Amino acid sequence: MMKEVLLNNPRLNVLVSVLIRLIILVVGLFGNGLVVLAVWKKRTLRTTTNLLLLNLAISDLTTQVFCTLMFIPEFTTLGHRPWSDIFCILFVSTNVPLTTTFVSILTLTVLAVERYHAVVKPMRSEIRLREDTVKYACLAVWLAGIILALPLYIFGRYDEESGRCLHGWKDGVFGYQSYRIFLAVIIVLLPFLIISFCYGQILHDLYFKNKVGPQNIALQQETREKRKLFKISMTVTGVFALFLFPYAIFNGLRDDTGNLWSRVARLVFFSQSGFNPLIYSFQSTNFRQAFKEIFVCRAC
Fold it and tell me: Which parts pass through the membrane (predicted)?
């Protein structure tokens, strides 16, 4: 019933989409802005894990802003202007949100590997990230995300007839469909295999592995802290995957990205970037305390 109403009333369809998008934007900017502010103001939060979560928050903020710009063609046409292709490629297409999605997936992969080294291989400190080296890992993640998305920018163009941003490369050995398959392997399958292996090993080590020797209070406290970080990392990754796969099915494996279900899947996926701050609030005492301090400071 609702589907028929939306299909028969394009204006209502656009208004509902914009309203939902604005709500997601406000929630996402507010929540991820809090994460950035908390890590910036509170030095004790600047651990390796939290700095990777900060990188994820910055990626989410970028996603939120550029996803909102994607609705500009719903209200006006770019027309045949010298800057139409550039404006389309950078601002009103999915190019930037997809780039930041690649960054988010790679960040979650680095986070899983870092937690694996911290929990399963704690004695091999030489392969672990530190507070002074994690920034290079974040920079590498952004560079990798941009490089993987380069074909979207190189072959993107504005189609005046349809009023949509399209990718103007022909299919073939190096065509768009081949690029999609490449991304499915490099940016979805491979990272989630790595993540699954890392968290599987961590789960076994923290909950099922028999500990040799007496467990003193300090060691028990350390184990509890590791379990908390594991739960946060797993929840963030699980929510991301839950929202990603419907989008990948409806948009990554099909050409008809303008139909209702594709648009719903895209909207739902890009809304996940507003959930992470809620996860931190519920599962991390340190983040929850930092958020409270920010509000108390603003109220003074």
Answer: 12-40, 52-72, 84-113, 134-154, 181-208, 229-250
Give the distance from CA 198 to its chain's centroid. 19
The number of folded domains in the chain is 1
Burial track 79-108 (b if 16+ CB lie within 10 A, e otherwise): eeeeebbebbbbbbbbbbbbbbbbbbbbbb
pTM for this predicted structure? 0.85
- What is the rounded distance in angstroms from the CA atom of residue 177 to the CA atom of residue 186? 14
Q: How is residue 244 written in tokens?
A: 């990603």
Burial level of 284, CB count in 10 A (0-12/13-18/19+)? buried
- Domain around 203: 1-296
Q: What is the pLDDT of residues 169-205, one digit of tens each?
A: 665 556 777 888 888 899 989 999 999 999 999 998 8
The domain that contains 115 carries what CATH number?
Answer: 1.20.1070.10
Supply the pLDDT for residue 223: 80
Q: Nearest Cα to 241, choosing from 284, 202, 195? A: 195
